[in-house]
Design a protein that fits this description.
The complex is a heterodimer of chains A (400) and B (266). By secondary structure, chain A is of the alpha/beta class. Chain A has eleven helices and 16 strands. Chain A has one domain: Thiolase/Chalcone synthase (Peroxisomal Thiolase, Chain A, domain 1, 3-Layer(aba) Sandwich). In chain A, strands 1, 2, 5, 6, 7, 9, 10, 11, 12, 15 and 16 form an eleven-stranded mixed sheet that branches. In chain A, strands 3-4-8 form a three-stranded mixed sheet, with no helix packed on it. With 266 residues, chain B is of the alpha+beta class. Chain B has one domain: Peroxisomal Thiolase, Chain A, domain 1 (3-Layer(aba) Sandwich), CATH 3.40.47. Helices cover 38% and strands 23% of the residues of chain B. Chain B is built from ten helices and eight strands. An eight-stranded mixed sheet of chain B has the order 3-2-4-5-1-6-8-7, sandwiched between helices. In chain B, α3 crosses α6 and α4 crosses α8. Chain B starts with a strand and ends with a strand. The chains are: A alpha/beta (400), B alpha+beta (266).
Chain lengths: 400, 266
């Protein structure tokens, strides 16, 4: 078992998704239990399903000096970075620590493959069309490369691409680098945008619901895909900080199947135990868990059983995929941000979309929005390849 | 000033055109540095049915990872792993983009789940019953250095042996012109925070700036090094194969190298 970790301060954070741009839009939608899912109107031949689409990306090009990086995914990243004073917080960190002491550690599942897809739709004599003849876009590292360039940072710069756990795991990368003194601060987070690869890909696996997703509903029939970007700035916590804290994380592998979770949730449980050990807390200390809760048959079955057997009824739990859709590689950071908002506002988000609770669910489930003091909270993220991650946060002033 | 990270190399894996294993590469280096035969990567860690169906990237990564773990004597089931690749399986990305442009509803579900960047990590952990943390990372053109920094950081931070496998395959289709990859290459290291049983130590520190790299003066190895981002491992692998203590810099990000002091005890 790992040792407890020194907490890290989350000195700035933000997210943009189908719920809107920035923290206030998310907090308002969650307080009102208002979903951002809409009928699919994406791609040339839209499948019958619901999506969590961010409005306005078609019109908001990147600033001229960043034009080489322009594509839907980097536009969404840029839009998110420009909310909630995040840009200024990064510039301030760069000023205080130096460009080589601030890392860019970002998660994504498909990065800007949407631009590669577009190139293939309009090939010019079998080659990428001239306007997409930009190698920086046609790689999984496009997002992290873009963010490092946008802030002129020269510290460690890494893309984590472990499917739907990607932007959760980057918190762990940052913690290790800060603890060992390699860096003083890190931009963590991630971005994934709607693209044909994921819409038709999940459709080919018969994992997409024709209607809005219904996490933990007895009659759930698949996921709704969404897009999102979110970012957090992590630094060492100083005495008396008023920032929320990262107090733990856990990572583990199912070793079971490429696209189906372990039937007993083994990897998910190992990631949970790893998280509690690093945070130095017990399951009973957890006030809220933001669940992975994709509304796929298998994920919710396994995760419901894990929560039911591991936590007391006082721990509240919900999936927020019914608000935003499954934002894949961005789910980790989006739901981390929603968890931080839940702590900030003492508001347990509803498990939106479910009308008939799955009988596997325990008394922990928050089927409707609740007002509740949340001191310590977890966020689960599980990905293809049996890749599991869990994060633990504490509210301002709560000693771990 | 002491190094930021000190790790010992417990196992090494290697595949390049002209040297299909770490032993073959050591032999080639010992006998003057000429390319030997090019053999398919042997991913004998994977079950036979998976080996037949696995994409090239998975075979390549699993082959070098298997060599390194076997040499280290570590138990793969408890070994955290980091799989680094600039571009993942470009042949699958090329297939996906072509199919999506022409007949999107014909997309193969198997190709889709194999298209995730963590497919090698997934297949590896399944084959070795590994429940430890597994990661799949990219650092673009500096993927090898970024992966080495991440794996060494994990080994020291968690006081555990860690497997690093860095792999890239040749570019394919219109995407291939963008990535510029001309051939396959993979290397793996089992890195340990403990010295016992190792003759190879790496002292690693971040070093601001990109120094670029000098030609090795060996046509075969210079070609391999230029073939894809993972092959930027070649100078380090050459020092380890030759049993030569040296210092080198490996690009780890835009504007950041890692300085590596390689200490080999005969």
């Amino acid at each position: 078992m790992p040792h407890p970790m020194p907490p890290l301060a989350i000195s700035a954070y933000t997210a943009t998704s189908a719920l809107g741009r920035g923290l206030d839009a998310h907090a308002a939608a969650i307080a009102d239990s208002r979903s951002g899912l809409t009928a699919n109107d994406f791609s040339v031949a839209p499948l019958t399903c619901f999506i969590g689409r961010v409005a306005g990306l078609e019109h908001d090009a990147l600033p001229a000096e960043l034009a080489e990086w322009d594509c839907r995914n980097n536009r969404l990243a840029w839009l998110a970075l420009n909310q909630d004073g995040f840009v200024d917080a990064v510039k301030d960190a760069r000023e205080r620590y130096g460009a080589s002491r601030v890392a860019v550690l970002l998660g994504t599942s498909t990065a800007s493959v949407g631009a590669t897809e577009e190139g293939y739709r309009r090939l010019d004599h079998g080659r990428m069309p001239a306007d997409l003849h930009r190698p920086v876009l046609h790689t999984p590292h496009s997002l992290a490369g873009f963010v490092a360039a946008a802030f002129d940072l020269e510290g460690p710069c890494l893309t984590v691409a472990t499917a739907c756990s990607s932007s959760s795991k980057v918190f762990a990368n940052a913690e290790r680098m800060i603890r060992l003194g390699l860096i003083d601060a890190a931009i963590v987070g991630g971005t994934d945008t709607l693209c044909d690869s994921v819409l038709f890909g999940f459709n080919s696996l018969e994992l997409v619901s024709p209607g809005p997703c219904q996490p933990f509903d007895a009659n759930r029939n698949g996921i709704s895909i969404g897009e999102a970007a979110g970012f957090a700035l992590l630094e060492r916590a100083v005495e008396g900080t008023r920032d929320p804290l990262l107090i733990g994380y856990g990572e583990a592998s199912d070793a079971h199947h490429m696209s189906t979770p372990h039937p007993e949730g083994l990897g998910a449980e190992l990631a949970l135990r790893d998280t509690l050990a690093r945070a130095g807390i017990d399951a009973a200390d957890v006030d809220y868990i933001n669940l992975h809760g994709t509304a796929s048959q298998k994920n919710d079955e396994v995760e419901a059983a894990l929560v039911t057997r591991s936590f007391p009824a006082t721990t509240r739990a919900s999936s927020t995929k019914g608000f935003t859709g499954h934002t894949l590689g961005a789910a980790g950071i989006l739901e981390a941000v929603i968890t931080l908002l839940a702590m900030r506002d003492s508001c347990v988000p509803a498990n939106l979309g479910a009308t008939t609770p799955d009988p596997l669910c325990g008394p922990q489930m928050a089927w409707t929005v609740e007002t509740r003091d949340i001191r310590i909270a977890l966020s689960n993220s599980f990905g293809f390849g049996g890749n599991n991650a869990c994060l633990a946060f504490a509210r301002t002033g709560v000693a771990a | 000033m002491s190094a930021a990270l000190t790790v010992w190399v417990k196992g090494v894996g290697f595949w390049a055109p002209g040297a299909a294993s770490w032993q073959a590469f050591r032999d080639a280096v010992a006998t003057g540095g000429d390319a030997g035969d090019t053999a398919r990567p042997v991913a004998d860690v994977l079950p036979a049915n998976e080996r037949r169906r696995a994409p090239e990237s998975v075979l390549l990564a699993a082959a070098v990872a298997g060599q390194a773990v076997s040499m280290s004597g570590a138990d793969a089931a408890t070994l955290p792993c980091v799989f680094a690749s600039a571009h993942g399986d470009q042949a699958i990305t090329d297939y996906m983009c072509r199919t999506l442009a022409e007949t999107p509803t014909d997309l193969s579900p198997t190709k889709f789940h194999n298209s995730v960047h963590n497919a090698p990590a997934g297949y590896w952990t399944i084959a070795t019953h590994c429940h430890a943390s597994s990661s799949a990372v990219s650092g673009g053109e500096t993927s090898f250095g970024a992966g080495l920094l991440e794996a060494a950081t994990l080994a020291v931070a968690d006081e555990r042996d860690v497997l690093l496998a860095s792999y890239d395959i040749a570019g394919a289709g219109p995407l291939g012109e963008m990535t510029g990859g001309t051939g396959a290459f993979a290397a793996a290291l089992v890195l340990s925070p403990h010295a016992e049983g190792s003759t190879m130590r790496l002292d690693i520190s971040p070093a601001p700036g990109n120094s670029g790299h000098d030609a090795l003066g060996n046509a075969w190895l210079d070609d391999v090094t230029a073939s894809n981002p993972s092959a930027h491992a070649v100078p380090l692998m050459l020092a380890l194969a030759a049993g030569r203590s040296t210092a080198l810099r490996v690009a780890a990000a835009r504007g950041l190298d890692i300085h590596v002091d390689v200490e080999v005890t005969p």
